[in-house]
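Deviations from the work plan: none for this task. Representative record:
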Amino acid sequence: MKPSTFVHHAPRSVDEALAVLAEFGHDGKVLAGGQSLIPILNMRLASPGHLVDINRVAGLASVEVTADAVHIGALVRHAQLEHHAAAFAHLPLLRQALVNVAHPVIRNRGTTVGSIAHADPSGEMPAVLALTSGYVDLASSRGTRTVAARDFFLGALESCLAEDEMATGASFGFFPPGTGMAFAESTRRHGDYALAGVAAAVTVLDGLITSARASFVSVTPTPDVLDLSELLAGNAPEEGDWAKAAELAREHVDPDADIHASAEYRRMLVGVLTARVLAEAASSAITASVSATTTTTATTTATATGPARSSANADATRA
Amino acid sequence: MTETIRTDAEPLVEITLHVNGVKHTAAAPTRRLLSDFLRHELRLTGTHVGCEHGVCGACTVLVDGTPMRSCLMFAVTAQDYEITTVEGLAEHVEDSGNGNPPGAITIMPTMSPVQQAFIECHGLQCGFCTPGFLTTITAYLRENPDPTETEAREAISGNLCRCTGYQNIVKSVIRAAEIAKERGVGA
């Protein structure tokens, strides 16, 4: 199992990378961490003529926590984001999900933006991007654009990236104050692709649920968000109708059958996991809600603006 | 017999790698995986190649001290880092023992704490997966010098072994932490 031949490009700046993509993008792939791409090349499921290795590109390896989002560059490794204290403090869901991304050794090399650009329905981080109303920064020699998660993913392993474009970064939006988050998935073996996975965010205000949302791993063609607010809003967080929510989730998903599990088994898992993560998120929302009203921590201030920015960017245009 | 003359020879690039503190230069195609470059071009066959898609962990090497799969990195990319393979794990201690002339010191290679623990705990049988375990555990113990058995199990979850059933490998992780402490140095 060896990759087919390719021309290796090692640009040192984003502009250089984009120039290469403009010329060879139709027969090229961007190589960042390579933890999904290189297996594909090794197995010859793809054989691009050009690889644009961005590992030497300066300025793409930072995690930045602003008032409304966690912004990451295209070379931020999963492990770097997983262990980022400020990112975890503002958006615990990032670490909750990242510890499920393959094994620690893979997370040392693989990049979160690469995982998003790969658009694998079995990827954890696309689901997290969707749930946080996140967005992806794209660049080409023609200009830059910002695309919301819901517009970025077009299908399994298919994103709206043009052939001359690369994803230079991604941003995960914050939830309103008083939001609890949880992530769970079921795998055959530790670190395997999930048979099914669920991310959830539940917001509690004045002792009552105001919003509840979930997104899914391995059971929907693209990481869409199921809004359960209508069902759960107004309930006390200890008494949400998780069973009914689980039923809605089972109806929402569209799992495939493969050698690892039948579609029906995956659907059953979705129900179990959804009930579990909603209860867990609601429970931590109570804690978050208390700290939001009794303290004036940076977290509270930072989350106050919520994820509105990404919606504003939904209809992004080329510069 | 006629000699076949290849006209489609693949272009080679010169690749310089820093491995175990030594600078090596060799020519290879750009598609050469780091794992294959170590084994074929540099003849460092301690790094084993198992699944070639990142699942088995046998090819794990340290990249600037961090464990990564050498089958999921190209040698051309690896030029920017300091690579440590299983051959680079042994420690070198000063031996002023009996065989030396007075005042002379011999530098002796010694098994690292992790290697020593694998010997003591019978942490391997066929040994194919061992290089990947040794590199992974070496890096892990630097970050977590005192793991519990559960943590040890978690630490090796990305490496497959078909012989041992893992019990003795878990014991080796715990024992390696002890040896490192006894020696008063990091793993």
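The helical segments of chain B are 34-41, 75-78, 113-121, 130-143, 149-155, 167-183.
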